[in-house]
């Protein structure tokens, strides 16, 4: 019985994949079906786990912050690894470097290299500060984001960063990337 | 949040190993915020986003699925990056190239789980997220997920080592190491890439033009001689075996050539079976050393015809500021004294 089940074709996936030219019919037909032991998750459960923020800002939480608020948090939580005012020590430099990407000694910082401001919020909230991720409130993360953007001259000192303003920020290196997928080969 | 232990990286001692399987305890490690200590009975993998049925799976459930077992290398995309430095570092084969390892992985095809969740046509990418302190996350095109991706739960016959993602990890055969997300806890089907930190700020290749390549997924065709190699000592003239490893992120190794004169002349090495796609392949050749200075090189060609470049050609193409996907020919100089060292030739 089990063997018959594993060999049976997965019609659901075949229907789903109509229009995916890159996936061959043979690949689809060889997808084995499992014993369907997945447990249905409620939308609330899924939302609770989902902290990723794409460039359009979907999923950004309530709250807001300013550069001045962020400066205080930065000094207490971030400066030990990233240096005063984002100049870098143990870990990455976060500010400066605009105009250096072609000069043979590029400084890849939030201001010079990062294409999306939403990434800054996403990463600080999921992973920082290094010794205690998830210890900052969402408004603290907005404030740190505002501070780092201000250090890089991307927003002014009075800027308020929140779910509406963050996705609208145009980063200096926004158009500096070329997608290597799917055509790139070594 | 789970507790973390361990440092950021360790390397496989390639110069001390033979064959193609890396002992699990010697698999390289590269972590973004340490190694989480995850109670397996509490861990869940959530598949959600553009699916008809968001589902969670635990290790006990996945262990009941029809498993597949395949031999594949995993290589950190930053492997060998020190070789774009101006001066050749005097390190061993493992010290220079040891962020690559090869295991037999057993797991559930990701396509099986996506079918069960009811993947929707708009789900062109997925976000894979780990349960480490960085919640390390990468966006992956759906074509790879449906091709040969698996949720791996065994490595070389045993459960995954904690350093390799216990209780479950994503395995994307041939693709840069960090996309093989360890401690996998969440897969979200999305319409496009999320643009996470590790696919924008990191793991992008800055070129001399100032533009950067993003989503450089497959690892390039590559080889390195592991014996003799840097730091080893030749015990006088006579017959030796040259031995090394070759691999390609897009398929099988087609051939490996060896030079003992810095690339002026080449002879074809024997490939030891099995020669598997997206796996390390062992090559060997007998070599009678006459006791004089020699420069040993290996050059791999994969089944698609892609040829491993010289260091000069690679740097001419990409400059010296790229950090990832270094895959140029390695040169080992054998001195008359029998000492072996890293050189640029």
Short description:
The complex is a heterodimer of chains A (186) and B (345). Chain A has helices spanning 2-7, 11-16, 25-29, 43-49, 67-77, 79-82, 117-127, 138-151, and strands at residues 39-40, 64-65, 161-162, 177-179.
List the helices and strands and how they pair.
The complex is a heterodimer of chains A (186) and B (345).
Chain A: H1 2-7, H2 11-16, H3 25-29, E1 39-40, H4 43-49, E2 64-65, H5 67-77, H6 79-82, H7 117-127, H8 138-151, E3 161-162, E4 177-179
Antiparallel strand pairs in A: 2-3
Helix pairs in contact in A: 5-8, 7-8
Chain B: E1 4-5, E2 9-10, E3 29-30, E4 35-36, E5 45-49, E6 55-57, H1 59-62, E7 68-75, H2 93-97, E8 100-109, H3 110-117, E9 125-130, E10 137-141, H4 142-147, E11 150-155, E12 158-159, E13 169-171, E14 184-190, E15 205-206, E16 212-214, E17 222-227, E18 238-247, E19 253-259, E20 267-268, E21 270-271, E22 281-289, E23 294-302, H5 311-318, E24 331-334, E25 340-343
Describe what you observe in this structure:
- The complex is a heterodimer of chains A (186) and B (345).
- Chain A is mainly alpha-helical and 186 residues long.
- Chain A is 34% helix and 5% strand.
- Chain A has a two-stranded antiparallel sheet with strand order 2-3.
- In chain A, helix 5 crosses helix 8 and helix 7 packs across helix 8.
- Chain B is mainly β and 345 residues long.
- In chain B, the strands form seven sheets. Chain B has a five-stranded mixed beta sheet with strand order 6-5-14-9-10. In chain B, strands 7, 8, 11, 12 and 13 form a five-stranded antiparallel beta sheet that branches.
- In chain B, 57% of the residues are buried.
- Mean pLDDT of chain B is 96; it is low at 1-6.
- At the A-B interface, helix 2, strand 1, helix 4, helix 7 and strand 4 of A face strand 5, strand 6, helix 3, helix 4 and strand 14 of B.
- Strand 4 of chain A pairs parallel with strand 16 (212-214) of chain B.
């Amino acid at each position: 019985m089990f063997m018959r089940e594993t060999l049976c074709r997965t019609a659901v996936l075949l229907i789903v994949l109509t229009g995916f030219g890159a996936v061959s019919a043979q690949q689809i037909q060889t997808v084995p079906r499992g014993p369907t032991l997945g447990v249905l998750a409620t939308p609330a459960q899924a939302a609770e786990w989902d902290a990723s923020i794409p460039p359009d800002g979907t999923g950004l939480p309530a709250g807001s912050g300013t550069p001045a608020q962020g400066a205080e948090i930065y000094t207490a939580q971030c400066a030990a690894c990233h240096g005063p005012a984002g100049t870098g020590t143990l870990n990455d430099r976060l500010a400066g470097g605009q105009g250096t990407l072609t000069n043979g000694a590029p400084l890849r910082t939030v201001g010079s290299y990062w294409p999306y401001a939403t990434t800054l919020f996403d990463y600080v909230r999921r992973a920082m500060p290094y010794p205690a991720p998830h210890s900052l409130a969402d408004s603290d993360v907005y404030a740190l984001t505002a501070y780092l953007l201000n250090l890089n001259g991307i927003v002014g000192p009075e800027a308020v960063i929140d779910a509406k303003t963050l996705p609208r920020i145009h980063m200096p290196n926004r158009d500096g990337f070329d997608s290597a997928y799917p055509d790139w080969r070594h | 949040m789970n507790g973390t232990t361990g440092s950021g990286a360790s390397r496989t001692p390639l110069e001390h190993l033979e064959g193609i399987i890396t002992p699990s305890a010697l698999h390289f490690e590269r972590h973004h915020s340490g190694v989480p200590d995850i109670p397996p009975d509490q861990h869940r993998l959530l598949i959600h986003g553009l699916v008809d049925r968001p589902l969670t799976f635990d290790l006990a459930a996945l262990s009941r699925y029809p498993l597949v077992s395949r031999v594949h290398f995993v290589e950190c995309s930053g492997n060998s990056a020190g070789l774009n430095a101006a001066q050749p570092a005097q390190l061993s084969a493992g010290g220079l190239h040891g962020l690559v390892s090869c295991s037999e992985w057993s797991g559930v095809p990701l396509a099986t789980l996506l079918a069960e969740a009811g993947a929707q046509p708009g789900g062109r990418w997925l976000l894979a997220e780990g349960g480490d302190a960085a919640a390390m996350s990468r966006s992956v095109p759906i074509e790879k997920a449906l091709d040969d991706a698996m949720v791996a739960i065994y490595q070389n016959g045993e459960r995954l080592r904690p350093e390799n993602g216990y209780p479950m990890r994503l395995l994307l055969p041939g693709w840069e190491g960090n996309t093989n997300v360890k401690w996998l806890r969440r897969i979200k089907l999305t319409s496009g890439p999320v643009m996470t930190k590790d696919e924008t700020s990191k793991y992008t290749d800055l070129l001399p033009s100032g533009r950067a390549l993003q989503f450089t997924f497959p690892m390039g065709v590559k080889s390195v001689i592991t014996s003799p190699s840097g730091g080893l000592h030749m015990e006088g003239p006579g017959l030796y075996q040259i031995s090394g490893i070759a691999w390609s992120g897009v398929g099988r190794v087609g051939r490996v050539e060896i030079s003992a004169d810095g690339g002026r002349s080449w002879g074809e090495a024997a490939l030891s079976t099995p020669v598997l796609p997206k796996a390390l392949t062992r090559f060997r050749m007998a070599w009678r050393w006459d006791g004089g200075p020699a420069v040993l090189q290996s050059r791999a060609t994969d089944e698609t015809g892609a040829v491993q470049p010289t260091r000069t050609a690679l740097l001419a193409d990409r400059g010296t500021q790229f950090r990832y996907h270094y895959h140029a020919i390695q040169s080992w100089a054998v001195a008359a004294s029998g000492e072996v060292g890293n050189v640029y030739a």
